[in-house]
Specification:
This protein is of the alpha/beta class and 682 residues long. It has 21 helices and 24 strands.
């Protein structure tokens, strides 16, 4: 039999049967290597025996003491009490679950070494259910190393993980991980095996800072693998050919004349970047970043026009029906005068309607199709898809990037973000893309005055909003409830709209939530856009993209529940015209420290990049991008909040590896096997 390898299943480890394998599976451990990369969450200091007199309530401690008395107490709950002493004091060990064998092992006069959290019991200090070992005489000194504590799942004991790792670590020397020493600045843990052993079995010399260094080495490797996979797929894309879309009829210039506003310098620069990409026969994959309201949509229109000039199709995907509908109206008004037909495709169209539209798309009669993800269902066939535009991307998973093939070719792709993404996250998660940035807002935008107000003053706020609406302003009232679901938010919006209509019968108040029929949603949005509705009570369905420049006032209920990116997005619905806007963030006290900080950030700043960086610091990448986006499931060790400083290094190493040592690059990607970037087919 060959020696077991690290990529063998955990079932090759002694003592792992189906039941244990199933538990390991729950924490996504399938191979011996997965175990090796399953790092301790923290360490316990069991290196020193504490004297009983020196114990502190609430702290974990290792003690060595002699059993003075063992008895069963019949109180509210039957328990076994073991009173122990050392030369400084007394302590009680309390067990609610115990058996005869245990009781024999801890009889009077025996010694015990145990570890647990010290608490104040009815008759002095005690430890409930300590981990313990019995000794006939005074126990030997404990091993002088820190004890790892692993992330685990129900029914999987620390001891078990530790003993499995013993077996895995035995295989470590036979393992040859990719060596990247010469690419690393810091040689301390250049050998990945040294870092891993150090983390699983910290030697006596281990300090917090050394453990941090070792962990950073492993995290670097993981980030590197991810960046490599992305850059590799970018290079593969460079080998593909697709349809080139050079300058043609200059319909874009025609739109520019008709727009009614001048593009900002940033919009002009970015439009040029996109159009130059389209001129090449390499498939574009470009990330368009820009703050809320910076005017990303019109860039998409120029790109779609370029494709249409060549008789090629563009698919524009929006994350919500409301936004798809709005884009449809916008694109139609921009493109129809140029003779380019636009079609809308969402899940809620009737079957007959859908079939007719599918047919028109398949015959190539419609050149621009706006829709939700329904655009990319199997039965939609494009005759000549050349360009895919994905708007407000933070709703779509990073790794479900719409890398679609059409007729065997990759179309050009433009991905537009909902909110700015911190630079480090862009480098780590979008390393396969070229990035364009609109870093300027259209002229004349007024700052939004943001106030944080306790829900205790909700009534006053309601009156003020109603008065403003009566004066001709338009306002959003955004409902979020305590339970996290669109259903409960919808109920909240319904209650609120009833309340407001009863109080202000003369005011035109609309209701918008995700569970209304699509046609009704579209009607309501149109009425609000036409100023027939003064006050729109809505759930967070209006979060992304919705653009009604007349609206100047927004109230967000339970704002403390929302993340910074979401608040920034929502607030971005106002302040889109030239009139000054206000945003009132209602919160339900008491506020946690983090919520307080979050609301302070949003009140102080209106710059999406500043807000995103603050979010990353406050709460980590999961909340900056939404859990599906962050790679939180992608990364096992790395944390892009904490490890931001490793990203630039990983990015540099990745480029050098791909240029000079592609096999090494493959090995690193293979080791961490980040999700593949396979292309889906249209
Ligand atoms: P976002 O980047 O958030 O998607 P939009 O594309 O929805 O922003 O643009 C916000 C609003 O600004 C829209 O009403 C749009 O027509 C308008 N707009 C875009 N560019 C300009 C500009 N250069 N000058 C004035 N208004 C603009
Ligand atoms: Mg937008």
């Amino acid at each position: 039999m060959t020696a077991p390898a690290l990529d063998d299943s955990v079932r090759t480890l002694r003592g792992v049967g189906p039941a244990l394998a199933e538990k390991l599976d729950r924490i996504r451990i399938h191979t011996a290597l997965d175990l090796l990369l399953h790092l301790p969450a923290r360490y316990q200091d069991r290196t020193r025996v504490r004297k009983l007199a020196a114990l502190k309530v609430g702290a974990e401690a290792l003690i060595a003491a002699q059993v003075r008395r063992s008895r069963i107490a019949y109180g509210k709950r039957r328990s076994w009490l073991v009173e122990v002493e050392d030369d400084t004091g007394y302590l009680t060990l309390r067990f609610f679950h115990f058996n005869e064998r245990q009781r024999k092992s801890l009889q009077e006069g025996m010694w015990v070494q145990c570890f647990g959290e010290v608490r104040m019991g009815p008759s002095g200090l005690e430890i409930i259910h300590p981990e313990y070992r019995a000794f006939p005489a005074e126990p030997p000194p404990p091993p002088p190393t820190l004890t790892p504590v692993y992330p685990t799942t129900e029914g999987l004991a620390q001891k078990r993980i530790i003993s499995l790792l013993d077996q895995v670590l035995d295989r470590l020397d036979r393992w040859q991980p990719p060596r990247i020493d010469k690419f690393l600045d810091d040689q301390a843990f250049a050998d990945l095996r040294v870092a891993l052993r150090f983390l699983h079995r910290p030697p006596t010399t281990a300090t917090e800072s050394l453990l941090d260094q070792a962990r950073a080495r492993v995290a670097l490797d993981e980030i590197l693998a991810n960046v490599l996979a992305l850059k590799r797929s970018a290079r593969a894309r460079q080998q593909e050919t697709t349809v080139a879309l050079p300058r043609a009829q200059r319909l874009g210039a025609e739109l520019l004349r008709r727009l009614g506003f001048e593009l900002t310098a940033a919009q002009r620069r970015v439009a040029t970047e996109v159009l130059l990409d389209l001129e090449r026969d390499r498939p574009m994959l470009r990330l368009l970043q820009g703050d809320v309201g910076s005017g990303k949509t019109v860039i998409a229109a120029f790109a779609a026009i370029r494709a249409a000039e060549h008789g090629r199709q563009t698919a524009i995907m929006a994350p919500t029906e409301i936004l798809a509908e709005q884009h449809y109206l916008n694109f139609s008004s921009w493109l129809a005068p140029l003779g380019i037909e636009v079609s809308l495709l969402t899940g809620s169209a009737s079957r007959a309607e859908r079939r007719a539209r599918h047919a028109a798309i398949a015959r190539g009669e419609v050149l621009v199709v706006v829709g939700t993800h329904a655009l990319f269902e199997k039965d939609v066939e494009f005759a000549a898809l050349a360009l895919v535009i994905i708007d407000e991307q933070h709703r779509f998973g990073v790794h479900q990037r719409m890398a679609l093939r059409s007729k065997g070719m990759l179309p050009h792709q433009l991905v537009m973000t909902a909110t700015p993404i911190p630079r480090t996250l862009t480098m780590a998660l979008y390393a396969d893309m070229d990035v364009s940035m609109i870093d300027e807002l259209p002229k004349g935008r007024q700052p939004i005055e943001t106030r944080v107000v306790s829900a205790a003053r909700r009534d006053t706020v309601i009156d003020r909003v109603a008065r403003a609406c009566a004066r001709g302003e338009q306002a959003y009232w955004v409902c979020t409830l305590i339970e996290e679901s669109e259903a409960s938010d919808s109920r909240g919006a319904e209650t609120t709209v009833a309340e407001l209509r009863a109080r202000f019968p003369k005011l035109a108040i609309g209701l918008l939530h995700g569970r209304l029929p699509s046609a009704e949603k579209a009607r309501t949005m149109a009425a609000f856009a036409a100023a027939e509705i003064a006050l729109l009570v809505a759930t967070t369905v209006i979060e992304v993209g919705v653009d009604v420049p007349n609206a100047t006032l927004m109230v967000i209920e339970n704002a403390e529940r929302l993340g910074l990116a979401q608040l920034h997005q929502l607030r971005g619905r106002v302040g889109r015209g030239e009139r000054a806007s206000r945003c009132i963030l209602l919160f339900a006290p008491p506020l946690t420290a983090v919520a307080q900080e979050r609301l302070a950030v949003i009140r102080r700043s209106q710059d999406g990049f500043v807000i995103a960086e603050a979010d990353l610091k406050l709460r980590g990448p999961g909340d900056v991008l939404g859990p599906r986006q962050t790679g939180e499931q992608v990364f096992r060790v790395a944390d892009l909040g904490r490890d931001a400083n490793l990203v630039a290094e990983a990015s540099m190493i990745a480029t050098r590896l791909l240029d000079t040592a592609p096999q090494l690059a493959d090995a690193i990607v293979g080791l961490w096997s980040p999700p593949s970037q396979d292309y889906a087919n249209v």
